[in-house]
Design brief:
The structure is a homodimer of 189-residue chains. Chain A is of the alpha+beta class. In chain A, 33% of the residues lie in helices and 35% in strands. In chain A, the strands form three sheets. In chain A, strands 3-4-5 form a three-stranded antiparallel beta sheet, with no helix packed on it. A two-stranded antiparallel sheet of chain A has the order 1-2. β7 of chain A pairs parallel with β8 of chain B, so a sheet runs across the interface.
């Protein structure tokens, strides 16, 4: 019988986290990951993405189960309202990444967190999407992220904690600073 | 008894689409929408977002049902693997928005589409997230989007179709060009 001893802070195994940091420090190529999805249009504003595999550390990994992510538009935007819409999913990606980044980096610093909540709101002017005014952008004009944290921390630590997500989050950086996107198209037989 | 006649192309009610375009053209303030989510940390890499309300055209709208979006990290990234991770959700937001934007704008042009599929892949170097190399960004370094379309269209129309998503998609613009994000933090009681 083998005893398994793990040290978890915020639900994160800090021993494995330290090991991961050391491994990537020693062999930077182990930090290279690529994530992928496959999306299929259903009808109107409805479509679905499959999430199965990702690559990292020179290996192909499979999620424990396959995830299907839905998207649709609400009625006022001419959809069937069977799922959150793409710009709401973008806010979820941002919220979840900022939270996870804060929780992991707090664990690495030995700071225990009790609760994290966040509210996000983003403004869009449909004149952009509808092609009515070339001076109006299609995307979000501003996103406001409000974090609420509970933990046995000083006000100074609370400020430090709340900066961890924005400082380290991959999605925060992607949305804040933009990402090059290549697009190719081919005909389905 | 009232007969309801709708003209749908690609599942999009083109009469309502034309009405929407005319309405926003006449009163640009009707194009102003804001979307929102509320996220709650569960444990480790797991957290959930609630999607309920959004605002537009001076009104508050409620989705037909409330949507709960999950996020977690796979085991190799020290999570419980109960859901797609934040950077995979970002790819879903992008795929779903590019597809919907193409489908809607094709409908506005009277172009019927039979099928749309897309594959997306994005590269991340964890040296950024782990804070190991300040010259490595935290976010995606590149996203590759491959569209596949089926429809009774010429090669020229196929090229035009495949440019509609990137040209008009709010999420494409947000991720490609970046969005200002304000962050505030407060203590939970």
């Amino acid at each position: 019988m083998k005893a398994e001893i793990t040290t978890k802070i915020n639900g994160v195994d800090t021993e494995r986290l330290t090991d991961t940091i050391s491994a990537v420090k020693a062999s930077p190529e182990l930090g290279r990951f690529s994530f992928q999805i496959a999306n299929r249009w259903i009808n109107g504003g409805e479509n679905r993405s499959q999430v199965k595999l990702f690559r990292g550390q020179g290996e192909v990994f499979s999620h424990k189960t396959n995830f299907e992510l839905l998207a649709d538009e609400p009625d006022v935007l001419l959809g069937g309202d069977t799922g959150a819409n793409p710009v709401e999913h973008l806010l979820h990606a941002l919220a979840s990444c900022v939270t996870t980044s804060m929780v992991y980096h707090a664990a690495a610093r030995g700071i225990a967190i009790e609760r994290v909540e966040s509210s996000l709101e983003g403004n869009i002017d449909l004149q952009g999407f509808l092609g009515l005014d070339p001076t109006v952008r299609n995307g979000y004009q501003l996103i406001q992220l409000k974090l609420r944290v509970k933990g046995n921390v000083t006000d100074e630590q609370l400020q430090e904690l709340s900066s961890l997500g924005p400082t380290f989050s991959p999605v925060f950086d992607s949305i804040r600073h933009g990402v090059p996107i290549t697009v190719s198209a081919e005909r389905l037989p």
